[in-house]
Each structure stands twice: as structure tokens, then as C-alpha cells.
Design brief:
heterodimer, A: alpha/beta, FAD/NAD(P)-binding domain, Immunoglobulin-like, 3 domains, seven-stranded mixed β-sheet, five-stranded parallel β-sheet, 20% helix, B: alpha+beta, CPE0013-like fold, 2 domains, five-stranded mixed β-sheet, four-stranded antiparallel β-sheet, 2 helices, 11 strands
Chain lengths: 432, 131
């Protein structure tokens, strides 16, 4: 078995892995990217639409243009990568086992690991639609890969379940390729992706968006022949008598993304209830020296936000290798972050008490859209540590807050911090 | 709030335009009243500009793929280097579908020059090497 030694190994060569590796290389550490595909770039390569780069480059780019800039940068810096290489395991002592067809099984001993494996799509199995198992059912991202990279159309007439951004973008893409998209069906009473995509991908082409409906049956034995959609009530229960049949030969599912947790879980890192690994405010998992960034940690709205997070992970991995790798640090004293009213999850999960005087970036999502709100951080004695007003919240937009908690009179013995998004009481109207 | 803008060649009638500038998504009513543009429902300057352009001459950046011969991949993602008038999108797509690109390609390479005589180029979104 061939053996390698590096300072930092990056698992995943997409937008997150590339940005993290570039930061590590610039700090003059040895870095190695492990990528399972035949080229670097990851999922951003198949997102051929524009709308990326406004934060990172202050211009509007397509996905391929965005990630090509990072691929070029990695090439200029001579960052080594192993393509067509599948990581099958990593251990808490930061040994990685991977396979490729040139070398067979290989071992990579790293001082730090950056997890950048991205996320998976939820499938039909995850949402339990009854019916046969005919050909013609795809996840939206899978269809995107067929159409944009491999040059195949997965069908002719489509129904798309879920109004996430990828689903709506695929509706327009398929229309442009000459297919007919009969409807986008959304179980929630509101669109789950960005308004921009609803307008430019659906309304522009007269594609109906049917909200408060879901698919209750898939018809066809060999090939999809249509779907039955049914209205749902507030509890998402099917409304009797509301069934409608829509003829189609293909069903696309755009019903959410899940961080790719398999390797992380097997290594023994804690996984949070909603999504990716448990991390502290340095993006470090519960395994020392293993960091996580990008969609493997939490699903982001925009690749620009992935890049920013990945750079932080890169810097923290560098700091770990240079400052902490050789010394034994005592068990960390940490504050637990939790979430309450109308919050779906929060990152980080843990704050190191020693880092309280540093800027900490909190990211979270709401469960449902709302207007005129207060975002509040409360400690374990119900004291409000921080609050700010927010005009409008929607689940599809991640909320990011940079806070220096020591400036907000946090109790030094605080053990738990809770974030909530609550309606703004009228009496509280004051200046922002 | 309403805003009046004088225009020489305005489309007839009215349009209710959902603003995409921010997540608030204001519904802006834009109407040509005897050659004067009347706008209602927007809540910021950027929204006003957006709704005006959407009424007068809606444009979109076109992003699609083009066939490639002997490439590492069978397709190259492409885009228009400027926004294309909405009513010309179909024709531009057709033109792109009839074109085959040759490798190697560098990001930014012009694959169709002056598409449909619009003074807009179709450019490559990434590098692509030979197979």
C-alpha cells in the first residue's frame, strides 16, 4: 500500500475544498486534495446558470466561471490533487484510506483534515411516495448533471416536486431544451426557493407553481405515465377529494439536500440533529484537528458563502497545525448553542469559552417565513444577551450574524446560548 | 408611491411586475398612461429601475450548453456576454444548438460572435481540454 504524509488533507475538490486548500497552501503548508470525480470543481460545475460571485468577485458569474477561477488559482499554486480517488475511511488520528485505479488502496497520514464533501439530494425514499418503481424518476441535481454535463435529456414532459432553487432552475433549463414542464408542485403554502428564480424560471415561461399540494401517487409500471397531486391542509394531511392527475413521463424531485455525513460519522465525530457535524466556533468537529466547511457542514444558499466559510476552515486548520498539533490541550470548556422559536438549526454548535472575545460567525435558518421580527440570543438564565430587528425572514435565506459576545455582557459562567426569532412586539418599536 | 417617467417608445398597456431585487418581492404596477410611465408598489430606487426595465425592455443573461467535438466532456457551458432581449432568447438558443465548438477551449473564448446581429457574443464558461 502506497503511503503519503501531508500537513493538511482536504476531502473533496469542489468549491469548498478548493478555497480551503488555497488558504492552506498560501500559509506554506503541504496540502493534498482528494476528489472522487475525474476533474476538480464539484457541483458548481453543473450549475451553469449565473448569479454567483457577487460577494467574492463583485461580478455576476456562472457556476463554471466561478469555480474555474479557483481551479486556475490552485494550478498556479501547484496544489497537488488526486482525482478519481474515493476516500473510504478516515480515523480520529487523521489517517485517511482512499482508493483509485492507479494506486489501489492508499494511506494518507495528515496532521489536520478538512472535510469538504458537499451534500446529497433527498430521494423518493426519503419522502415516501407510494406507487411502482418505474423509470423516469430523478432528483433535480441528477437531471442537472445529465442535461448540463453529460448531454442527455432524462425525459420529455416533466412534473417537478419541490420549489427549491435547483428545481426551478431545472424547469427553465428543460424548457430551453425543448421539454415541457407541466407544473412545479410545492407542499408548503409558499415557494421554497428565491423569488428571483420563481420569476425568471417559472413566470417567464408560464410554468404553473402549485403550492399546498404534494404528489400522492406515481403512475406507470415501466415508465412514469403521470402523477396524482393532492391538496394538503395545514398539517400536511391530504385533503380528500382534491386529487388531480397530471400526465408526464418524468418526475424530478427537488425536495432538499442533506450533508454527506457518512465518513464523518464513521470516524466517530458527533453529527448534529439537523444536518452536518457538530462544530465549534473554529469549524472544528468533535475530533481534534478535523474541520468542516461548505455544504458538508450546512447547506448554503450561495457558493460565495461556501467560499467564505472554507477560507475560515483553511485558516483554522493552518493555526491548528502550526500552534496546537504538538501540544496536548485539556478538554475544552464550551458553551452549547441551541435554537428555539422559529429557528431550524444553528452553527456553531459549540463556543470555546477561551474564544469569547473573538468575533464569532453564527449561521442559522428559520422554519417559516415571517415579517417584523426580533432575533434574540438568550443565556441559560433567560437573560437576553443580544437582539436585533429583522424585517423579513424566509427559510431559503440563511441568516448570518457576526458577534463578539464579550461586547454583549455575556455571563462568564453561561453554559448555554439559545437563538430565537420572535414577532416584534409593537411597543418595542425603536431605532435600529 | 408613484413615479412618472417620460419615454418616447413605451410598450402599450400595463404589467404587474414582481421585483426580484431583494427578498421582500414588491409587486410593482407599471402602466403606460398616454405615453407616461406610471409606477406603483415599489419601495426603493433599485426596484423602480428594475420594474421600469422589465416593462420597457426585459433582458436576460442566457446560459446554456453547446456541443463539443472530441472534448473531455461532450458539452461546454456557455453564456451571453451581455443580457439578451427576452424575445430573442429562443432564437439565440436555436443558434447555439446548431453550433459545434472545437477544443481546446479557454474560459471567456468567443464561441459565437455577434449572435443574431445583437452585438452580443456567446462565450465559454470554463476551460475544456481534448479527450
Amino acid at each position: 500500500m502506497k503511503k503519503y504524509k501531508v500537513d493538511v488533507a482536504v476531502i473533496g475538490g469542489g468549491s469548498a475544498g478548493l478555497a480551503a486548500a488555497i488558504v492552506v497552501k498560501k500559509a506554506e503548508l503541504d496540502v493534498l486534495i482528494l476528489e472522487r470525480d475525474k476533474e476538480l470543481g464539484g457541483i458548481t460545475l453543473q450549475c451553469i446558470h449565473n448569479g454567483f460571485g457577487l460577494h467574492e468577485f463583485e461580478e455576476e458569474l456562472t457556476g463554471p466561471e466561478y469555480v474555474q477561477r479557483f481551479i486556475n488559482r490552485a494550478k498556479d499554486l501547484n496544489i497537488p490533487s488526486k482525482l478519481d480517488t474515493m476516500v473510504i475511511e478516515f480515523t480520529p488520528d487523521k489517517t485517511i484510506y482512499a482508493v483509485n485505479n492507479m494506486e489501489g488502496l492508499i494511506e494518507i497520514k495528515a496532521k489536520a483534515i478538512i472535510l469538504a464533501m458537499g451534500c446529497r439530494e433527498r430521494t423518493r425514499g426519503a419522502i415516501n411516495i407510494p406507487g411502482f418503481r418505474p423509470a423516469g424518476i430523478f432528483t433535480a441535481g441528477q437531471a442537472q448533471r445529465f442535461v448540463n454535463i453529460e448531454g442527455y435529456l432524462p425525459g420529455r414532459t416533466f412534473v417537478i416536486l419541490g420549489s427549491g432553487d435547483i428545481g426551478m432552475i431545472m424547469a427553465r433549463r428543460l424548457t430551453w431544451e425543448g421539454c415541457e414542464v407541466k407544473a412545479v408542485v410545492e407542499i408548503q403554502p409558499y415557494v421554497s426557493g428565491l423569488i428571483r428564480n420563481e420569476v425568471q424560471c417559472l413566470e417567464d415561461y408560464g410554468i404553473p407553481l402549485i403550492t399546498s399540494y404534494t404528489i400522492t401517487k406515481i403512475h406507470g409500471k415501466e415508465r412514469v405515465q403521470g402523477v396524482t397531486i393532492s391538496k394538503v391542509d395545514r398539517n400536511f394531511d391530504r385533503v380528500i377529494g382534491s386529487d388531480k392527475f397530471i400526465e408526464c413521463d418524468t418526475l424530478l424531485l427537488s425536495v432538499g439536500l442533506i450533508p454527506e455525513n457518512e465518513l464523518t460519522r464513521e470516524a466517530g465525530a458527533k453529527i448534529s440533529q439537523m444536518g452536518g457535524p457538530v462544530i465549534d466556533n473554529n469549524l472544528e468537529t468533535t475530533i481534534e484537528g478535523v474541520f468542516a466547511c461548505g455544504n458538508v457542514l450546512q447547506v448554503h444558499d450561495l457558493v460565495d458563502l461556501v467560499t467564505a466559510e472554507a477560507k475560515r476552515a483553511g485558516l483554522n486548520a493552518v493555526e491548528y497545525v502550526k500552534e496546537r498539533y504538538d501540544i496536548k490541550v485539556e478538554k475544552k470548556d464550551q458553551i452549547i448553542c441551541t435554537f428555539g422559536e422559529n429557528v431550524n438549526y444553528i452553527k456553531p454548535d459549540l463556543i470555546n469559552r477561551t474564544d469569547l472575545s473573538k468575533d464569532i460567525i453564527f449561521t442559522f435558518r428559520v422554519k417559516r417565513p415571517d415579517r417584523r421580527l426580533l432575533i434574540q440570543f438568550k443565556d441559560d438564565k433567560n437573560k437576553i444577551v443580544y437582539k436585533r430587528k429583522k424585517i423579513y425572514v424566509i427559510p431559503s435565506e440563511m441568516i448570518e450574524l457576526k458577534l463578539n459576545l464579550s461586547e454583549h455582557q455575556i455571563d462568564p459562567d453561561c453554559k448555554r446560548l439559545e437563538v430565537e426569532v420572535i414577532p416584534r412586539p409593537e411597543v418595542l418599536i425603536e431605532e435600529d | 408611491m408613484s413615479a412618472k417617467i417620460k419615454e418616447n417608445e413605451l410598450p402599450e398597456g400595463f404589467k404587474d411586475i414582481r421585483c426580484i431585487i431583494c427578498p421582500t418581492g414588491c409587486l410593482v404596477h407599471v402602466e403606460n398612461v398616454n405615453g407616461e410611465l406610471i409606477m406603483e408598489g415599489h419601495s426603493c430606487k433599485r426596484g423602480e429601475e428594475y420594474a421600469r426595465e422589465e416593462f420597457v425592455a426585459p433582458k436576460r443573461i442566457l446560459t446554456t450548453t453547446m456541443l463539443v467535438e472530441n472534448g473531455f466532456l461532450p458539452l461546454i457551458p456557455v453564456r451571453s456576454d451581455k443580457p439578451i432581449p427576452k424575445e430573442k432568447l429562443r432564437d439565440a438558443l436555436k443558434k447555439i444548438a446548431q453550433t459545434v465548438a472545437n477544443v481546446p477551449i479557454k474560459m471567456g473564448d468567443i464561441l459565437i460572435e455577434n449572435v443574431l446581429g445583437l452585438e452580443i457574443n456567446i462565450i465559454a464558461s470554463r476551460d475544456l481540454i481534448e479527450i
